[in-house]
Every structure is written in structure tokens, then in C-alpha cells.
Amino acid sequence: MEYNKLTKENINMVVKAYVDYYNNCEDGCWTYEKAYKRIHQVMTIEDAECFVQYVDGKLSGFVMGYYKEFDDLKAYFLEEIVVFAEFQNKGYGAALMEELERVVRENGVVMMELSSVNDEHHMHFYKKMGFYQASNFVAMGKFLIEMET
Length: 149
Fold this sequence. Notes:
Layout: E1 2-5, H1 11-25, H2 32-43, E2 48-55, E3 58-69, E4 74-83, H3 92-106, E5 111-114, H4 120-128
Parallel strand pairs: 4-5
Antiparallel strand pairs: 1-2, 2-3, 3-4
Helix pairs in contact: 1-2
């Protein structure tokens, strides 16, 4: 496996793979422009840490997130991890998370946090990686317009 920073030189390849994966495997409706904006927004946040994973020269996945400073610790917020369909269930997601943890630990992080889809697949993966469900935070949301279902 090889890891490289997510950069302006490789973002187009990542965006195309993202759109393909989510639209064909997750019933998404991403456009290239929307996916580019989402990924570019995160990778250009101050203190972003985003990188891609290659297996045998092929893009297998990526992570994106950013460092967060608190009064008593430095954290990393994992905005998204994506392992593309042909690479799933082969240990590449775990390897990607392990590399991310190594990198952020070297940069002084003592806690990682994320928001996740609440389903069996995601909960199994994150618990296997040592994450726990926080009991002192609740996800809150509010639609400002009525959404079509």
C-alpha cells in the first residue's frame, strides 16, 4: 500500500471515484461539481489532514479531516473515510485508519472523533477500530426547507 497527500494534483481522480462509488454502490445522486466542492472544502480547511491510499497502483480509498484545538488537548475530526467497492472487506479500510492514526498521533493528537451513519456495518467497523459511542454528545440537525423523499 502507498499513501499520498490529497492535493490539487490528485483531487480530480478522487472526485471521479467518489461520484462513481456513491452513485453506483450507495444510491447517491452526486454530481462531479458537488463532490469536488465537498472534498475541496475539507482539504482546504486550516489544519486539514487528508490523504489517499493506493493498492497495486490503484486508488483504493481516502480519508479527509482536520485537526481541532481544545483547551486541554488536540483532536482530529474524521470527516470521511471511503474505501471503494472493489477494495472493501479486505482489510484496506483498517489499514487506512491505522495509517491515519499513526500520522495524527505524530502530530500531537490524543483523541479522534467522527460522526457516523448509525447502521450495523459502520458501527462494526468503527468499534473494531477502537471507537466508542459518545454518551455526552447528541447529533442535532434542522432542515430549513422541506426535503423531497
